[in-house]
From TrEMBL:
Residues 90-166 form the Thioesterase domain. It comes from Aureobasidium pullulans (Black yeast). Belongs to the thioesterase PaaI family. GO terms for molecular function: fatty acyl-CoA hydrolase activity. Signal peptide: none annotated. This is Thioesterase domain-containing protein.
Length: 184
């Protein structure tokens, strides 16, 4: 995979067209829809956004830009068997994948060219598992941008079951990979 900093126009994907004019919801939904569409081969995480048999179609409930550098979002989904372990509970690796993707989407409302539009790369992804969630169970994931600067971001997530009980928590630290924007 090429380094975005070596790409002539890393923002050339159609999802970034009129980015500044898009609402936070339009940005997040656009990224969810575009995920994996440019790849020659499907990726594991594509199943989060593109419904197929056994996939985990994630629905956006709400997204809010709370300040110029903070935002939050809420997502829901039902756990398919594909993402479970031998006891038909959601696998820890699946939860980690979900947190990696959904916390990153929380950056979209505050991003702009040179500032988190490409979502960055993970430095630390710490997930604490508190209780199991079974196949077919509806789950809510609340994510937020706790702090973001030019080079690093701190994100947080909480996964809850249908009764509002916390299933797991996540702390996600990222590094920005956006190339600097040329100044005229």
């Amino acid at each position: 995979m090429p380094n975005p900093k070596d790409t002539p126009n890393p923002y050339g994907h159609p999802v970034y067209k009129d980015w500044a004019k898009q609402s936070p919801e339009e940005r997040v939904k656009g990224l969810m829809k575009a995920h994996g569409t440019a790849a020659d081969e499907p990726r594991f995480s594509d199943l989060l956004y593109h419904p197929t048999e056994g996939s985990l179609p994630v629905d956006l409930v709400s997204v809010t830009k709370t300040s110029p550098t903070t935002a939050s979002a809420i997502f829901t989904f039902k756990i398919p068997a594909y993402y479970t372990n031998g006891w038909l509970n959601m696998h820890g690796a699946a939860q980690t994948l979900i947190y990696d993707n959904l916390t990153t989407l929380a950056l979209a409302p505050i991003s702009k060219p040179g500032f988190w539009m490409l979502g960055g790369v993970s430095r630390v992804l710490d997930v604490k598992f508190l209780r199991p969630a079974g196949v077919g169970e509806k789950v809510t994931v609340e994510v937020e941008v706790v702090h973001v600067g030019r080079a690093a971001a701190s994100l947080r997530g909480v996964m809850k079951d249908g009764k509002g009980r916390v299933l797991s928590t996540c702390e996600h630290d990222k590094s920005n990979i956006d190339p600097e924007v040329a100044k005229l």
